[in-house]
Amino acid sequence: MRAAPKRLSAKRSPSAKRPPAAKRRSFSKAEAAEFYRRLAASRPIPKTELEFINPFTLLVAVVLSAQATDVGVNKATPALFTIADTPQKMLALGEERLTEMIRTIGLFRTKARNIVALSRMLIEQHGGTVPRDREALETLPGVGRKTANVVLNVAFGEPTIAVDTHIFRVANRTGIAPGRTPLEVEAGLEKVTPAEYKLGAHHWLILHGRYVCKARKPDCPVCVVADLCRYGAKTAPSELIAARAEAVTPAPLTEPRPGRPSASRRPVRRARRP
6, 11, 133, 164: which one is catalytic? Predict the structure, then answer.
């Protein structure tokens, strides 16, 4: 018997390329300003959810929050900060006791080692104070760009934007500052964020990502920027999104062309009397 002829599978030629994904429209200046205006209106007093006493305890809390939740960190730090709220006291506490006090936090052994080491460096190189300098902060054990940006923003009032997993998701999903890396997203946010919103931008974006634009299923029905968002798989009907937009948008986002008066400013011609 003859063997049945083999079916040739339809293979894509190596030279054939997939069609490029449709590029999403970038945010205009007016849209970016409106995006932040709405986030600011929904959370008038933006602030970190980490509990701290001073710049040093803030630094420690942010180091502890890596790959952990703010809630989990806040459960462990009150007792810790009661007895160790300075680099000197943290060194006196020691790595072994510190490890026991933060055992409920992920990667607690590595974090305890880093906190003791950074406390020593602060004493030896910075007089026991937290430096107001990004490069100096990033030389401390367990401190990267994100942690440095948080400390500069919260402790010293610098308009820095720390990009964590929530902000990375919000920036890419909404399309306000897409990027392949946290550094690309940070650069995009620095460029698009209006100056008057930069100080609170980190907090507005992270809280929006934590409670509304969630990873598994964004809560689009309650999102105040849903109509501005470029995400294609929204979880709310377009009619609802449009209705919410009308409720929160004070004025049209279309900018009048230069040299042409808007409809409201055009002179009204009056009919001459006979």
Answer: 164
**pTM of the predicted protein model:** 0.78
Q: What is the CATH number of domain 29-45+161-248?
A: 1.10.1670.10
| Choice among 11, 89, 146, 191 that is catalytic | 146
The span from the CA of 176 to the CA of 189, in Å, is 7
Q: What is the DSSP letter of 87?
A: H
- Whole-angstrom distance, CA of residue 177 vs CA of residue 202: 13
Architecture label for domain 55-156: Orthogonal Bundle (1.10)
Query: Does pLDDT of 210 surpass 60?
Result: yes
110, 187, 195 from 199: Cα distances, Å:
31, 15, 8
Say if residue 102's pLDDT is above 70.
yes
Contact between residue 70 and residue 166 where contact means Cβ atoms under 8 Å apart: no
Handedness of CA 197, 200, 202, 206 (dihedral sign): negative
Please confirm, yes or no, whether 164 is among the known catalytic residues.
Answer: yes
